[in-house]
Amino acid sequence: MRDDQLPAEPSPRLAIITFVIVVIALVAAAGLLLATQPPSVKITINPPLPTGTPPPSATPSPVTVYVTGAVVQPESLLTLPRGSRVQDALDAAGGVTDAADLARVNLAGILRDGDQIHVPEIGQTIILATPGGGGIVNINTATVEELTTLPGIGPALAGRIIAYREANGAFADLQALDAVEGIGPAMLANLRELVVFE
After folding, report:
1. CA distance 149 to 6
2. Please, what is the Cα angle at 68 between 63 and 69, to 5 degrees?
3. Checking DSSP bridges between strand 137-138 and strand 195-196, what pairing results, if any?
4. Which H or E run includes 67?
């Protein structure tokens, strides 16, 4: 083979140019790769908002009642949880005797502090409203029978009081009771110490 037929050796200049082109291509590819990456996401963790601690609820105070009449332990002064009923007071007094006239006692009545619960004997003529014995009657919850234990209130007037209460809502105070036909200033004066409006 003649010398003029041998392949020419690459010149150093050509190798340098090739190397520079390859480096530029790599740099361009790296730049393109970095440019097409999505932006980094910044994650912020917010702590939960502090919650307020609810104030402690008031514990209802107990009620003290006086139980008399036909019970196993008469004349008992008893302390019971608020919301107790007349039946609870009678049970705490040992229960009723065989002579008790329970038809004249509202066993479901809610007790109030200071109530007197009197259980009459069968045939006994004394009438005390219960709960709230001693004639104390809650105008806003009383039945016709309980209302008629008050001075000057018969069945007809008791019926008008209940009808007015059902049509207009609970009586706010003694003066509101004056709106019932048949009740006037004189009767209000007589009832002042005998009724409550809870």
Report:
1. 140
2. 150
3. parallel
4. strand 63-69
| Banded pLDDT at 52 (limits 50, 70, 90) | low
Nearest CA to 80 out of 94, 92, 67 is that of 92
- For residue 94, what are its two tokens? 């040992």
Interval 13-32 mean pLDDT: 83
| Main-chain dihedrals φ then ψ at residue 71, nearest 5 degrees | -125, 165
116-119: strand order across its sheet: 76-80, 63-69, 116-119
Rounded CA-CA distance 46/153 in Å is 69
CA-based radius of gyration for the chain: 47
Percent of the chain with pLDDT over 90: 20
Handedness of CA 141, 143, 144, 145 (dihedral sign): negative
Selection from 156, 180, 155 nearest residue 167 by Cα: 180
CATH of domain 63-196: 1.10.150.320
Closest listed residue to residue 147, CA positions, set 168, 164, 169:
164
Reduced to 3 states (helix: H, G, I; strand: E, B; else coil), residue 69 is strand
| pLDDT one-digit tens code per residue, 151-165 | 788 888 999 999 999
- What's the CA gap between 191 and 177, in Å, rounded? 10
